[in-house]
Amino acid sequence: MTLYAALGAISQGLVYALMALGVYLTFRVLDFPDLTVDGSLPLGAAVAAVMITKGINPFVTLPVAFAAGMAAGFVTAFLSTNLKILNLLASILTMIALYSINIRIMGRPNIPFINEVTIFDYFPWITKLIVSIGIPGRYANIALSLVIFLIVVICIKFVLDFFLHTDLGLAMRATGDNESMIRAQGVNTHFTIMLGVALSNGLVALCGALVAQDQGLADVTMGVGTIVAGLASVIIGEALFGEMTVFRATLGVIVGSVIYRLAIAFALSLRIGDFVISPSDLKLITAMLVVFALMFPEIRSRIKIGVLKRWGDGK
Amino acid sequence: MIKIRNLRKTFNIDSVNENLAIDKVDLNIKKSDFITVIGSNGAGKSTLLNLIAGVYPPNSGKIVIDGLDVTPLKEHSRAKFIGRVFQDPMMGTAASMTIEENFSMAHSRGKMRGLKIGVNKKKRELFRSHLKLLGLGLEDRLKDKVGLLSGGQRQSLTLLMATLNEPKVLLLDEHTAALDPKTAQQVMEITKMIVTKYKLTTIMVTHNMTQALAIGNRLIMMHQGKIILDAKGADRDKLTVDALLNEFQKVRGSLTDKSLLSINTVTPKC
Fold first, then answer.
1. What are the residue boundaries of the structural domains of chain B, listed by start?
2. How close is the nearest chain A Cα to the Cα of B173, in Å?
3. What is the ipTM of this complex?
4. pLDDT tens per residue, range A67-101
5. Inter-chain CB proximity A173 and B118 less than 8 Å
6. Distance (Å, rounded) from C-alpha B248 to C-alpha A121?
7. What is the pLDDT of residues B165-174, one digit of tens each?
């Protein structure tokens, strides 16, 4: 793996960590499996691309993308809580609907805007700083995205950590842990679920808007497999950092996301004889990775039980 | 304090599993009354508590707490008047969260939950002083996850959380039934202490007749959704376990008569 590929992977890992934090919020905090993210990622990208090509300040696209994502999340949560549709199915319905909506927003399946002004054009001083500390010029662009994504993701992490320790955040965590308990404590769990799923998708759409600006392209298919990548990041993070506190869990998600992208970049650079892994194989690899990670605790306990049994019989 | 009028609840209405759980119940509860509710399985004891708590709406009738008709209110809106402890020790607390976080959520019951930090120094001191009442050493474990505690500890914690804001009514649904006898005894002692301390209006469901007689100032026996015995004052003090068992026998007899009758009324149709 070249240095360029590694830097690229780290920068990707940091920006997609925003999405993974969203997935953490639904899957782990709320215990609400939410596949809407496959649609809300390109939603954020579409909103950003359309606004930028219309000449609107690229920073303005970020809160708008966040709000659009929140709306998508709200729809999923509404279907699930008020209309009593199974949460997984509700999220799939919103995801499918978003495919059409995203094409409507863009007017076509994709918008390239590589020559437009994006948020990355506003920080020439960071680029200067990067070059001045001796990093070769050809890495300057990728290092710039890396630095910006790092700042964004750290800020969001701390805001999220704080939020999950407020009265409202505690109520949201308890909703995922023990819904009847927190209802008995006077919390409207429909509201906490709606807010949580909306915030989660807001983060995912924000991630989409940043990715689109980084790549200069919004594409309706860019969200395929988002949920699996997000889950992989969450699970890798848990394996490394445990889930003892919110602070560690969110840190784990970010590190997990970076490791996931590095692992993918590494896999792409592999050559086994004549066999080369192509980018289209990545979904398969990710799916297998997640299956393995999900099975891991079960396998471990089975092996233990098996050993104990044999030991018991032998006696 | 609490007025229950003509309360009726049928589950699975218009289906083969139709089940009349509460049948025209009327009940007046005075402030600081401690009522114990006994009855066989399916008598409607838990349903009565759940109706008061608003877990589901009644089919007819109304419930008034302290002058306010709460019948149209949802569970979470009633929670500010009501403290609850469930039979399952796992149900009253959030296992993945710490003791102080659980306490903080109970502390916010009936208040707006905003973006203020959930646990601060002041609250922590308050929680610690409350936990000391239990004498279980939990005041030194504020940052431990509740999932690490034993069933009895969790139930005591739930009890403390339910009474933290001095609710207008405390509902205890067989809250010691899932504990071993010694722990159950302990939790019962704590219950007595807290209820006496705050003079709480309490309704306690139990299967244990000795327990039902040992605590409280009023005893209600339910059968097939109806209140069949309501003893208070001197009558209540005269009651013995044998007398209660006798009452049970009586309704068991009537049950067979009734079911025979219902079979008779159905057969001609066939």
1. 2-13+24-96+150-239
2. 13
3. 0.87
4. 999 999 999 999 999 999 999 999 999 999 999 99
5. no
6. 83
7. 889 999 999 9
